[in-house]
Every structure is written in C-alpha cells, then in structure tokens.
Design brief:
Length: about 325
C-alpha cells in the first residue's frame, strides 16, 4: 500500500463537491420530531461482569419510530455523583459486543454509553438490536438499503438512534448532561459527525477515521467496501446515479460538520482505502467549530492511529469534559 490520494498540502484545503439539499434542516427536524413523539423509555439494568473497577448496565431505549435499541452503560465502581459522559458509536458490521470489552472511558473516570447498531453485529462483534424495517432490492450490506429515498434509507434510522442514544445517556441520574462528548471509529466516526451536527451543547467530538463523508468522492476514488456497495448497486441499477446521490446528500458527514460547533479531534490515515483521507479532510475542513484538530497517520491504512489515537484522545478529551 502506498499513499494514493491528494498530497497532504492539498488535503488541508480540499473541499467536497457534495451538494447540500435545500431542505436538509427541515428533513432532520421532521425526522427527529417524529422520533420524539415516542417516549424515550430508557432502562438501565445492572449486569454482572466479574470486574471490580466498573459497574455495567444493560440499556434499552426507544430509537427511530420508537423501536428498541440496546446499549451498554459503564460507570467507575462506586460512582455516587454525576459524571461527564462519553457516548460511543460503533464501526461498520459490529455490534455492542460483550460488556467487559468497554473499559477505556470508565477507567479514565467518565460515564461511558455504547450504542448498539441496529441490524449489524455479525461482522466483528455481536449485536442485539434488529432492524425491523424492510427495503427494496439492495446490494448486500447496509449502504444501499432503502437508498431510493432519504425517508427510507437505512442511515436515517441509525442516525436517529444515535441522537436518541445521547438523550438516553443524559437521562441517567449519574450523568452530568451538560458535559457530553461523542466519539467513534470509522462508521462510528461518521455517526459521531451526524450527532455533532444534530445535537446542541456537546462539549467534545472525537471522530476517528470517519466513514460516511464526501460521498461523491468516496464512491469514485476507492473500490473497497463498504463504499463499493454503492457502486455495485449502481452497476446493476443503471440510471439511478442522480437519485442515489441525492439520497446520500442527506447523510453526508460534510453537511453535518458544517453545523457542528463543539471542539473536535479528527484523525485520518494517508493510506486508508476504506475512508480515503480526502473524504475525512472534506468533513474536517467543513467543520464549523472554532476549535478543531486532526491527527494524520502517514503510513497507515484504515487501522489509523489505533492505540496511538486513543492515547491522543486521552490527552485531549478530559480537559473538555472536566472543563
């Protein structure tokens, strides 16, 4: 693997050609308004893990259309006063997995809420949340489910779940709702940017090698999955390019970034064929917050910074959460 995208100096000024829909804000206001007609009904049930340093809760809350979404909620053992909370979203194909695998942010002294990903959870970590909504014919995976219309597209449901996950986390009595951060890797990073553009009063946004950004470039500059699912769909469904691009424009991280204001830490890798660096920089350069930074890993693929990026987040995030 070698660096294949734009040179770094061009990446730092690159802007996406993604066209923002005129009714972008109205679409999301309507979507979230409909979701909030359902009671959040966030339930937290303590589960044994065999760990003595944390307390873990099995979470269920109402996501899109009131449909139940699972999660984990982890606290430092013995917590008695409200803590800042880190809400985490997961990478493509994975689910919430087993509770003992989520230790980082509670070990740093924060509440940690991990949202399960509807319909996923059979790729690299198990999931417990079905997606009961059907779809017209689509290419295997999630990228083209319901892609004929933004109202039926899979990521409308998932991004709505994510906004409701923040609301569920903030509803817990041991969470200081005024100190909420969101984070995720890859698909989780893309969801993080969506939430950053849709939820007010966040104190930090950490989007690691984010997916779901700059669809016009991503779908033509790389042939690696999951973006390739879109090309494979269009290879069969000839003549739907404009239709699909219009749908995807409602879910492009570039447009959410343009509405976000919380301090942000991004990361990208210059050999990343899954989330090409130009697509990450497209979101970073569009990000509206005054305080933003990006870590660049020159010789890495989609693993990005890995544990090094976690270390960067551990240096950066506590100062924002503790204020």
């Amino acid at each position: 693997m070698t660096q294949f995208d734009l040179p770094l100096d061009q990446l730092r000024t690159y802007r996406s050609a993604s066209v923002e829909p005129e009714d972008f804000d109205a679409f999301w206001a309507k979507t979230l308004g409909e979701a909030r007609t359902h009671a959040l009904d966030a339930r937290f049930e303590a589960v044994p893990t065999g760990l003595s340093t944390v307390e873990t809760f099995d979470v269920t809350f109402a996501g899109f259309d009131g449909q139940p979404v699972k999660g984990w909620f982890v606290l430092p053992a013995g917590t008695s006063q409200p803590l800042p909370v880190v809400v985490e979203f997961l990478g493509y194909g994975g689910g919430r997995g087993l509770p003992h695998t989520h230790l980082l942010w509670a070990s740093a002294g924060f509440a940690h809420f991990v949202m399960d990903t509807r319909g996923q959870g059979s790729g690299w970590a198990t999931g417990d949340t079905p997606d009961p909504v059907g779809s017209a014919p689509s290419f295997p995976g999630f990228m083209t489910r319901g892609v004929e219309d933004p109202y039926t597209y899979y990521y409308r449901r998932l991004f709505t779940d994510a906004v409701r996950a923040v609301e569920a986390a903030r509803s817990h009595p041991l969470v200081d709702a005024s100190r909420t951060a969101v984070t995720g890797v890859s698909q989780g990073g893309g969801i993080t940017l969506a939430v950053a553009g849709l939820v007010r009063n966040l104190v930090a946004v950490a989007a690691d090698v984010p997916f779901l950004c700059d669809f016009p470039r991503a779908t033509t500059v790389t042939d690696r999955a999951p973006y390739r699912e879109i090309g494979s769909y269009l290879k069969t469904h000839r003549g739907r390019v404009a239709l699909v691009r219009e749908t995807l424009s409602y879910f492009d991280g570039v447009h959410f970034a343009a509405r976000a204001s919380a301090p942000a830490l991004f990361s990208t890798a210059l050999e990343d064929l899954t989330c090409p660096p130009s697509t990450v920089f497209a979101a970073f350069n569009a990000y509206a917050g005054d305080e933003k930074a990006i870590e660049v890993y020159d010789f890495n693929d989609h693993e990005g910074g890995g544990a090094f990026q976690q270390a960067a987040q551990l240096r950066w995030l506590p100062g924002r959460l503790r204020g």
